[in-house]
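Why predict the complex rather than its parts? Because the way molecules touch one another can change local conformation, and only a joint prediction can capture that. The input here totals 285 residues.
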Amino acid sequence: MSSDVATEADQETRRLQHLGSMFDVRGLGVVVTGGGSGLGLTMGAALARAGASVTLLDREEDRLATAQEDLAADGYAVGTATADITDADALDEQFARLAASATGLHVAFANAGISAGIGPRLRSGRLTEIDRDRWRSVLDVNLTGAMNTVASAARHMTTGYGRIIVTSSVGGIRADPMVGYAYAASKAGVVGLVRNAALELAHRGILVNAIAPGLFETNIRRANPTAQAMTADFARISALKRAGRLAELEGLAVYLASPASSYVTGAVLSIDGGAALTGPNDVEV
Ligand SMILES: NC(=O)c1ccc[n+]([C@@H]2O[C@H](COP(=O)([O-])OP(=O)(O)OC[C@H]3O[C@@H](n4cnc5c(N)ncnc54)[C@H](O)[C@@H]3O)[C@@H](O)[C@H]2O)c1
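Output of the joint prediction:
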């Protein structure tokens, strides 16, 4: 009886050790752009809780300070870095600083992004109404900013263990009239960026993947006045009939940063409740 109990306890220990070593991110240097809020903060916090050495990077200093305080209150120390991802030199300086730190740089989430408002579902989001300034600023942040981040990560990840994870969107992999043109174009664009970078960086042990989230409740949607209607529409078209909960991103973030994903590169991983499987909402004419 007592030896059976010992065996069970032993198996439980081995089970946890096995899981622990597959997903072991302890000691990895991680940077997350857009880390002051929403998906980035969720993914950064998940990595910090799993034992990684995390730096949240954002252009909003206040958000970073609040995030850092909240995590410290929970017992997790994270670093912060203020930079705008559209400023390639300022961003690169931060990456250089992190890579030169005692921990080094192993994992970069190119996650910061902004909304382009509603797409062709409404008249104001149709092709003839495109606001050129907004188009340029969305492309600048979501596509050029992601390229700046991936380029800096490629330049400064020199340890032989590298993971770059770019946040695309379900709106970048299939049509969605709720999603503004600039956003759809930028999120499709980063998928091309990821695939080429995966090919270029493989020989250096750097894996490059995209995640394509569906709808999650975050600050980005405050910039979109039709957010509530979008939530209802999104729930209707997703297979699971609901928006995502932020905690549901944590496992994927840890997986992609960890040794468990060692044979995955150039992939686009959907995390959208099955929304990409369904048809988009109609454009109402
Ligand atoms: N929330 C969703 O439903 C959803 C779905 C699919 C994809 N995404 C993508 O996820 C990413 C994160 O979005 P979120 O929902 O967490 O939004 P969010 O607004 O909550 O967080 C985005 C963060 O990025 C920062 N940021 C924006 N532009 C920046 C810049 N130029 N330089 C540095 N930091 C900048 C903001 O200050 C903010 O803290 C974005 O790329 C977004 O497109 C979000």
